[in-house]
Amino acid sequence: MYNLNALIPELSVSSIERSIEFYLDVLLFEMNYQRPEDKFALLSLEGCQIMLEEVNGYWETGELTYPYGRGVNFQIIVHDINSIYDSLKKNSYPIKFDVEENWYRADTKMKGQKEFLVMDPDGYLLRFVENLGEKEIERNTL
After folding, report:
1. Cα separation of 43 and 57, whole Å?
2. What is the Cα–Cα distance from 30 to 70, expressed in whole angstroms?
3. Model's pTM, two decimal places?
4. The pLDDT of residue 37 is above 80
5. pLDDT of residue 140
6. How far is CA 130 from the centre of its chain?
7. More confident call, 61 vs 94
8. Domain covering 10-56+72-141: architecture
9. Where are the domains of the chain?
10. Measured distance CA(127)–CA(55) in Å, rounded
């Protein structure tokens, strides 16, 4: 059984079948449950959860045109990004930004992550991240 996170993004998708196939078979998410009659699914990956629902005109705030995810990217923290990256490559799925190591300042520490970005079939930008730990910032760089 699973617990629901306090915040779960629900993405409107153009084809629930295509999106479920992509998230399960390529990105290695797991199906928590679905309501086929509503064209809805709840998926998870290492504690991250996402809901998918085929566009139905119900909660739309404006016209949806590709890419649906303009202006947002979803950071998904996993233990090992290589398995997801390798699955994308094996499935000849395009990578938006290739794997790189980045360090970001968080107050007086630097937090490192290995990351890459990919767009899902509807244009939502997904940033897969593997934590690299943290280190102190040199005093003269603050």
Report:
1. 22
2. 25
3. 0.89
4. yes
5. 64
6. 13
7. 94
8. Roll (3.10)
9. 10-56+72-141
10. 23
